[in-house]
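To close the chapter, one final illustration. This time we ask the reader to focus less on the individual chains and more on the assembly as a whole: which components sit near each other, and how the overall shape emerges from the parts.
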Amino acid sequence: MEAEQAASEDEPPSLLWGLDPVFSAFARLYIKDLLLMRESRQVPGIYLYKSHPIFQVDILGTVVFKREREDFYSYGVDDGTGVINCLCWKSEKWKEPEEPFKGGRAASSSSAVGPSGGFNVEEQLRRLQQAQRGASMLEIGDLLRVRGSVKTSRGQREIMSSNFYKVSDPVMALQISWMQELPQLYRRCYQKPFPLSDGEPGTCATTTGGQASFSSLLGRATQTLRDFLREKEVRRFRPYDVEHLLLPLVPQLPPLTGSEQASAAGPSVPSHTRHLLSETLRILQQEGTLFRRVLSQDELYHVTEQDKDLLMAIRDVIQQDSKRQKYAEKGCHILHILSSVRRRYSQSLSRQALEVGLRFLESSSDIISTSDCHYTVV
Amino acid sequence: MLPATAVYHFPWELKPSAIADGTSVRTFGRLTCYRPEDSTAILSSHHASIKYQVSVQTSCVEPFNPLCGALYIVLGEIENTEEGSGVMLRARVMNCVDGVDLALLQKAINEQRSFFQKSEDNKGSTSG
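The assembled structure is written out below.
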């Protein structure tokens, strides 16, 4: 019972499955893992391997069982870790050509060169069809590669193939490289947890589900704030000016302990909104979109691209120093600009904020970069 | 309905007492002797200066083109025989893989095994 509950909590929300690259790829898993995967509770038909949603798989193995029906082949494939049934549909294109056609072209069908001396398309097409048929008809002992979706029918796991073919591997080169590749794929990709946040994994101490919703919420919050600052051309603001922007996003957060809705004065703002806001502001500061000119009790944030004083200070520094012989040819290095602007404007200016300012000035053609880290006036 | 999984085994691991009767295995060796009248073949391999032999019942995979001296991969069920020290394998699949890099194949099998071992250990330690 507890294991089941833990398992269902492990499932990432289905809305976020598209974020996992494994979901869109044909996952190369061992057959024994395919047989043991459990089906998702949210969307039947999708399976989960260590919190990765799996829909399509890619396997390579020996055919140990064959059954032919009118429309499909059913091959049992063994890769050394498990055996699974693969349903491989027959294609119309592979069916034998009708007799009348064969009789009429008996004379010319044997050669690739037609009676006119040119390239005989019919002959080539016939050979192509033969090759395709050959690649799809396998016997026990042949090596088969199958790509398709996983299904459970009558209690048995099987693969509904979308693409399959016989592999010619006379010296086992492909099988050996497959055996060596899979453990690496597992270690690098499949055994790592579902990639929910691109930032520090330890920021949110809630369950995996909570982490998923918080990091996606954080993404939405930063975007909302960025859009607002750009549209309204905000130069400076304090946190309580922008709190209201995050309120619409808040109801989607999982509720924290009890109800912390009461606040001292003004409109009630839950504490998790404040937490979200402080995280958002921290991320925007790290990016360089915002900076604090003076580090004091008063939390006043400046928007880098809108702060005319900062941009003027950067431009003046570069203009004046570019006249000096030392910097005339190559331009000023970014660290030199940083120390000069810090002296002139704000001690707490970060490199990221300076880079945002420099990019803005460059796009308005006030300065130009002479190399990766050097700038000069136009 | 589907046959059991044939796990890779090295020929020197196929001792009569080590593996249960009826287990599906996959192994390799060089074809040194083939008797079509009995449908038996012998696959030999060397490991640490010792020659190992595996007897194979080939009735299910005949007719096949026997190349004496060529390397074969055989997949089948173990049948422990009373006489001698050999182990008998009833083949379901017999593929000629002459030209295969045996050292590389061995390395790949060992890598896979150590990976499975580590996964089992991790699972054991997290659930414990």
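The two ends of chain B are 35 Å apart (CA to CA). Chain B has a mean pLDDT of 88. With these observations in hand, you are ready for the problems at the end of the chapter.
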